[in-house]
UniProtKB/TrEMBL annotation:
Record keyword Hydrolase present: no
SMART domains reported for this sequence: HTH_MERR
Domain HTH merR-type as annotated: residue spans: 11-81
Domain of life: Bacteria
Species of the source: Candidatus Pullichristensenella stercorigallinarum
Keywords from the UniProt entry: DNA-binding
Protein name, per record: MerR family transcriptional regulator
Pfam families: MerR_1
Amino acid sequence: MRRQKAAPPGYMGTGAVARKMGVTVRTLQHYDRVGLLSPSAVSEGGRRLYTDKDIIKLHQILSLKQLGFSLSDIQNRLIPLDDPGAVAGVLAGQAGALRAQIARMTESLRQIEALRGEVMQMQTVDFKKYADIIVNLQMNNDFYWLIKYFDEETLDHIRLRFDKNSGAAFMETFTRLTDEAIRLQATGVAPGSEQGRAFAEEYWKMIDEFTGGNVAMLPRLVKLGQFESADSAWRERQAQANAFIGPALEAWFAKQGINPFLEEDT
């Protein structure tokens, strides 16, 4: 096995630089190929030879790379800059990019932890439901956890009728009307009053949009507020809302001369 000759005084070979700076020889070779860090000299035998000045530049490159700068940023934008204001501007831009990345990673972590909790509660492997939970987490739907209680037929219906945008719009309407029902109940509005019937009409329009006019789905929707293992705060909130929604719908149905549940039975 042929031994490498010692580097001339004042120079270091690729292996020595790699060991000194904690990088691989391949990394140094790549930096040379892309023109980011070329050696100060090359021996007659083709060995790359580096000086202390090269080491300082490598230290700069590695430090900036650690901050999240790409090699093209370092090569084309940052290294040539010698005006403090210009450098500070580039650093400010990178800081903003890192903050955005941290926000994305924090949100991803939130979604992973939430999904993990749902998986442990479901105690079954159901990747279709996992996917639905992830989509609803991305929509910031606070009711994502309800998905584990839906049967497959209901979930297939939701998948076909709603995308992210329409699903988010529906949940916004559902939340708004739930809050409105609680408010009307608290302020003493009679469910059978004109205001109560107007609320019921809007609420029924939302249900009709959700079901697509399929009254066979109504019993499934009734069960939404009856999950014994559901979050207690959610159950209490739904109970408060339903105390007004149920009588208001009955009053509106009577006014309209319809009974959707009877239609479902016939």
